[in-house]
Amino acid sequence: MIEGSGLAKIYGKGSVEVRALDGVDIHIRKGEFVGITGASGSGKSTLLHLLGLLDRPTTGSLAIDGVEVSSLSERERTLFRLNRLGYVFQDYALVPELTAEENIYLPSKVRGMTAKECTRACRDILGLVGLRDRVSFLPGEMSGGEQQRVAIARALINNPAIVLADEPCANLDTRNSTLILELIQKLNRELNQTVLMVSHEEWHQRYFDRVIVMQDGKIISDNDSAGGAQ
Amino acid sequence: MLEDERVAFFLASRLITRGNKGTLVLTIMIIAMVFVNLIFLPSIIAGVVVLFNQQSIDYSYGNLVIEPRENELVILNVKELQQKINRIPGVVASSPRYTSGATIVYKGRSASPLLVAMNPEDEKQVLKISTKIISGDYLNEADTDQILIGKTLAGNRDQKVDRVASLGGAEVGKTVAVTFINGVTRSYRIKGILYSGSASTDSNAFITKKEIESVLGRSDTANQVLVRTTTTGDENAMRLTLMQYGVQQQIWTWQDKSADFLKSIVGSFDIINFISTIVSLIIAVVIIFIVIFINTVYRRKQIGILQAIGIDRSIIIKSYIFQALFICVCGTVAGCILLAAVLQYLTASPLVFPGGPVAPVLEPLLVFRAVASLFIVSLIAGYVPSWLTTREEILSAIRG
Ligand SMILES: Nc1ncnc2c1ncn2[C@@H]1O[C@H](COP(=O)(O)OP(=O)(O)OP(=O)(O)O)[C@@H](O)[C@H]1O
Ligand SMILES: [Mg+2]
After folding, report:
1. The whole model's pTM is what?
2. Same domain, B50 and B75
3. What's the ipTM?
């Protein structure tokens, strides 16, 4: 699913250069629920941005879903993100003027789905994330946990190969965090959805199939049950 | 590709309907006023031109002016020519005139106006001077010792009020002494005072043609024949018709005669109008630009996230162009309503220019030009700011 090797991201030049990512090899298989943790500044977000095609590595190669992504043009990368990736952000990042439903089906509308198809797909997913009664609520009318569930639904609408989540629970209390984690676990188990999630909370780790620990831009531990690289 | 427009339209419509209404309404009102401004002044100018044109026709020239052949001073056998002209289809009437300089003295004040000698009945059918007598009466065919003078020429007792040399407040019933070009001096009683609003006509003096013929000792001559035609607007065609019917004298249209005068007026109006149009359009661009720009900058992070989840930059730009177009369309509609109100008001209480009330003239081309320029303005003012904001790296936009 994801094959990255020698991934490095270097900011600045010469004496002020920052090695945000310093030669990371990462291999993730379909259906895995992977947690990335590590101290602040260890490069977790940087790695996720590279895997999410929001940034380009300084060096290294990366293939996602069988596509060598470094060769894609800017427009192709946008399409790739639309069609094969689902992104969940720390602060939900919904469009405040769109209802829950509209926020969710926006990415599928871009792919050319008709309004009818959009609505149907949307209702299914809202059911999945347990927000069927919030269909026409605006983000401002929902709690943080509810907004994050809408954001997860939006990430899922286009049936992505992989869902990337950067600290999706950082702004939520324990109860809501648990709800989100259980939801992601359910998606992973029931839909066989591949998920890569950044978190630095110790207690989140029991939900992950596999935990990657980072430090100073390097992976220092990976409890890959299947043996990591293959 | 049309999918993109559909999504952009969807986004734009939601941002408008669920966004800040206050700013939206304010912006639309400003665009409405710009629209009114783009149309109002030119339509008034067009109205003034129409008024001046009508004045030229009604008080100075009729539709066509026949003058002596080149190198000749007068038209001989005028009666015959007049009969010939009057028989031509499309001609309503014609009026021979003999115009010359003269010196008029009243109570020691003298002025040298253009003295027009005409047949009052013929003149009545060609010009509307007879309807503009503000005191006394119009001339009769038989009048020999009476004179009609324009209001400007009559002047005021208080000389400071007069803009040109006048007779210092000559009144109906008083007597003036007129010295003709051949040196003959005769006395005339002022029969009427004329106020047409046309500056040149109101400075003239009028006597009968019969009288000038007795002064100059000539008959059946004129140096001008004014012609009224059934329709205004095809003077050039009528000019050719007259020539085909054997009129050998020089034939001018009223446009030829008043061209210089109108050109100078329209020319200076055009400059004012141009400046006003440019300023209005700049205001429109700046306002829409600022509104869209603040909007996109405020949503910088959101725009970054939309791009991150795979929504192409072009869709976002288009959604802002749609918003700008919406502002423009609403502004235009509101502007039309505002304009209708202004025009309504002006019909009820018209602007009065020297020469009469001016009705604004709404030329379709003018309206089209205003709509088109606002359309282009909103395209630019929607495109540039959203292009600038979406140019930013997705990551730096997301970080905020
Ligand atoms: N645009 C940038 N320019 C320079 N340095 C950067 C830039 N972005 C990130 N870095 C540096 O790269 C390193 C890794 O940053 P990153 O955001 O990946 O850390 P993180 O593990 O996500 O931390 P946190 O847990 O605080 O979110 C940090 O030292 C950071 O200062
Ligand atoms: Mg981070």
Report:
1. 0.80
2. no
3. 0.89
